[in-house]
Amino acid sequence: MPKRVILIEDDPVTVKITGDALARVAPDARLEVMRDGLGALERLIRHSDHARDHVVLVILDLHIPRLHRMELLRELKSRAETRFMPVVVISGTATPNQTRELYSLGANSYILKLADPAVDRRNIERALEYWLLVNVLPVQTKMSSQSLTESQSGPE
Questions:
Q1: Which of 35, 43, 60, 92 is the most exposed place for a label (fewest CB within 10 A)?
Q2: Per the structure, how many domains does the chain have?
Q3: What are phi and psi of 105, to 5 degrees?
Q4: What is the C-alpha separation between 53 and 46, in angstroms, rounded?
């Protein structure tokens, strides 16, 4: 199954930029857009394990309706089934206190949206390259170790 990126964002410009960047970086990956925090929480926590298995990245805008962004991040990082999902926060603002709080809650990265769409596109593309092509998630590590063990033990 293809890798899935969940974008929690209500701004159509950022949705388009992210979709275009994902198509360039990982054409087989799927972008799933959630436009509010409650819908995203339900999608990520209350769906079956099968639905979560292929989510490799969550991109969370700080200014989303229906659930405070800190609460959504806190919920995702407090649950065993979503704890290791990387969460990249994206926002047009970044105060030192806000940034510190987000990282203390478990954010894995923080991207500052600028007024320049070309710079935003490049920054989002770089983040997608890292999280989808370079980074190894715990589930991937477990699968790789299992495959290695099976290949070393030979056929049964």
A1: 92
A2: 1
A3: -80, -10
A4: 13
The C-alpha R_g of the chain, in whole angstroms, comes to 16
3 state SS of 36: coil
The model carries a pTM of 0.83
Domain extent, residue 85, equals 4-153
Spatial separation of the C-alpha atoms in residues 111 and 59, rounded to whole Å: 10
Q: How far apart are CA 84 and CA 152, in angstroms?
A: 28
pLDDT digits (tens, 9 = 90+) for 53-78: 578 899 999 888 777 768 899 999 99
The one-character DSSP state at 154 is -
**In the chain, alpha helices (H):** 12-25, 37-41, 49-52, 69-78, 96-104, 117-128, 138-153
Q: What is the CATH number of the domain that holds 37?
A: 3.40.50.2300
